[in-house]
Specification:
single chain; alpha+beta; 12% strand; 3-stranded mixed sheet; two-stranded antiparallel ribbon; 5 strands
Length: 182
């Protein structure tokens, strides 16, 4: 892989430019690194290692990164964002119909918990509501059985996914997205 997998916006000032170091990671003050992960699918172990090292450095230094070269079509990313935002914009009562049951280890469906943004800094803040929606491919009809995790032997893994009906295309989009990522 000849190109540096991490880049920043053109207006950014690099802290350590790639030309100043043998390190392929360019860190930029005030910016989240952008990593091209396309070489992760290379047959060349060195190319894959460069991507892995870039991700590790981004996690160690900023804790965040954006990826490109992932192979997910832009149209699907847009659909996923649209249906997800539509779900989270629903009234609380509607979202609660899909809430994960207390103690459910699969955490399939809607889950909300308060969190505190600056808790690790000992700074008091108003609570932030962490909301998520989760699914698992094993929760789709017949998949757990095909994977030899049938309901008889593994009832937890074969529990069905929970799908909201208020957002048209939610289930189809999430399954399409999951399929591409898998």
């Amino acid at each position: 892989m000849s190109a540096d997998p991490i880049r920043s916006t053109p207006a950014a000032t690099p802290v350590a430019a790639a030309s100043e170091s043998s390190d392929p990671v360019v860190l930029v003050d005030g910016y989240v690194p952008v990593i091209d992960v396309s070489a992760a699918w290379s047959t060349d172990v060195v190319d894959r290692r460069v991507v892995a090292d870039a991700v590790a450095r981004a996690c160690e230094n900023s804790g965040f990164f954006v990826i490109t070269g992932h192979g997910v079509p832009t149209e699907l990313v847009t659909r996923m964002e649209e249906v997800s935002l539509a779900f989270f914009a629903l009234a609380d009562e509607a979202k609660q119909r899909y809430a994960v049951a207390d103690g459910d280890p699969t955490i399939r469906g809607y889950y909300a918990t308060p969190s505190y943004v600056a808790a690790s800094e000992d700074i008091e803040t108003a609570p932030d509501l962490c909301q998520l929606y989760t699914i698992c491919r094993l929760g789709e009809p017949g998949v757990a059985t095909v994977e030899s995790l049938g309901a008889e032997d593994h009832p937890v893994w074969s529990r069905p996914n929970v799908w909201p009906t208020e957002v048209p295309g939610f289930r189809e989009t999430w399954l399409d997205y999951y399929g591409v990522l898998e």
